[in-house]
Amino acid sequence: MPPPVSLSRSLETCSEEASSSPSVNVRAGATTRTQKTKTSSGNKKRGRVATLKTRPEVEQIFEGLSFFYIPDNDIAPVRRLRINRAKEFGAEWTRDMMTATHVIVEKKLVYKDVEKLWPKDGFGDRAPPKVVNEDYPLDCIQFRAIVDPGQKKYLLDGQVTTETKDKEVLLPTSGVVDSGPGTKSKASSLPLKPQHHNKRKWDYVPPRGTPSQGEESSLMKSLPKANARSKTPPKKDDELSEFISMMQEFKDLPLDVDEDDDAQSTSVGSQHQVDLDQGSGSENERPSKRRSSRRVRPTNKAITFKDRFACNRAGRKDAGQDNPNARTIEMLQKMNSYYERVNDHWRTLAYRKAIGTLKQQTVKITTEEEAYRLPSIGRRLAQKIEEIVTTDKLKRLEYAEEEPTNSALQTFLKIYGVGNKVAQQWIAQGWRTLDDIKQHVKLTPSQMVGVEHYDDLNTRIPRKEVTALGEVVKRAAAKMDPMVQLIIGGSYRRGAESSHDIDFIVTKPGTESVAHLKSFLNTLVAQLERDEFLVARLASSRAGSDGSKWHGCCVLPKIKGLNDDDEEYRPIWRRIDFLLVPEVELGAALIYFTGNDIFNRSMRLLASKKGMRLNQHGLYRDVLRGPDRVKVTEGELVERRDERRIFEILGVTWREPWERWC
DNA sequence: GGGCAGCGCAC
DNA sequence: GTGCGC
DNA sequence: GCCC
Fold first, then answer.
1. Which residues form the active site (predicted)?
2. DSSP 8-state secondary structure symbol assigned to residue A14
3. Quick check: pTM over 0.70?
4. Are residues A449 and A540 in the same domain?
5. CATH of the domain at A596
6. CA–CA gap between residue A216 and residue A202 (Å, rounded)
7. Using an 8 Å Cβ cutoff, are A525 and A580 in contact?
8. Residue A415 and residue A388 share a domain
9. Residue closest to B9, CA→C1'?
């Protein structure tokens, strides 16, 4: 039925996708669309358009494509609806597979069902149609773009994919590889090798039916031995997971209750999930609608827990590299920094938590509902995640990044002492570069340092150097008072390969208040300044106050064996902090200054759930809070000296510092 | 619709 | 008190 | 932004 014209157009249109070159990224839906928009004025009087709504030309994303449906009829109301919808967006419904560009297969069917209809002699010179499940057109419509048909979520059961990573290798994925004209017809006729049955069925939310299983399997992948999954995950794991879940979900599960309700609620939640999702999934027309069905994640700990596991890995800054969701994370991080820039504190927080969740996933999250199940990922973020996965971009982000002031904002915010307020102000005044600032703006002393040493201070410090810096300070300190302890906290204590700054916790046995340490710090700082190790003060406790911290900059001197052979040696300015901690508070302080901050927040949240309060000074109980959580009493001190004890009392299994990446 | 940590220091 | 950093 |  489709005239040759249509066919060739089809081929042309999807040439990217059908290309034999695997390196071509197929996701350029936009390209395809624009191209089509231009030509669409040509001939597009599709057959039975009578009852169809007319979509604006720009929405004719399927223009030139023809869909062959399996089953090949529109008897089922749902399928008819979908077919019509595809037509609204420019698709042609063909009843002849030879002319189809896409074969849309009902989800219940498996790849074998397609094979039966597949022409024995292949498709000759043309590329075989792409075989996708019924979600494919819906997603295209949702995103108003031709998305990559090779994505896992569009595969049928039994359909083989070579897709492993995410972006590269897109083409061969759907199996609908065009092996090229030269190849055997066999190859093109049966591109998918059903024999390689992929045991696993990711297609739709693998974990959905049995969340725990799904999770476990992913766990096994990433932590093969650490959590010898077997049957009895150490109790520790549960607690850890639970704990972590607290970190990311502020007010979730009442820990207090958890002793009684946990197992049950878990399984119940899972069951529900299956039903709801499947039911709605097969009958709703629009994906967005289907997916917006209420989340079935009722205090769903099982999921939450396990999702947290991966958190254990000592994450370096590049810890996301191998993550299957790397691309998604990358995009969300951009959104995150965008919101940071525009001063949207809470959105920033939300994105950070969502990113944290995603980082812990060991399988790629491809659909909205998969994402939605995860903690700290709500409807909006889940939609964005799916948009990223399917279109490889994010419209909202593109708008955001178009804002001309964007880069300036980014620049200014990296100046020490400059936050959103000031940065926005400067921008409003028309400044865009550091030079502008240097010339026109009156800076505070801190900001001055921040500007003058902008590059240095925004360069991460290799772990080795942190160690070296630590040695310098410790040596000087030991000379003055051998009893004083200096502990390097922050990301260094968590085992980071590089740090943004170096934090010293300064303490000494027998001290009960920072006052006992102040004079020491003053002496130490004075000495280190004389040594020209400390080169700037940014914030330091004043004489009168009960000051407990000192922020400044230091430089690493030449050290034999470390950097003395480097003729390029240049003292790089580094951020350095001293935090005075009386020995009695050391445990609480260590927790606080080791972080990371998400970890800390959850600890505090956990404490608060248990009627306790945790801060850098200690763990308190029976905190009375008035309306609006206003603290009425300090509460009774429970523990502050012993880091492990604080974990214990909170009912949390001990976690080494390097296990506190969240 | 409200909370999302809370504190020390600079200004 | 606000802004900022942690 | 998310969660309750």
1. 384
2. T
3. no
4. no
5. 3.30.460.10
6. 14
7. no
8. no
9. A539
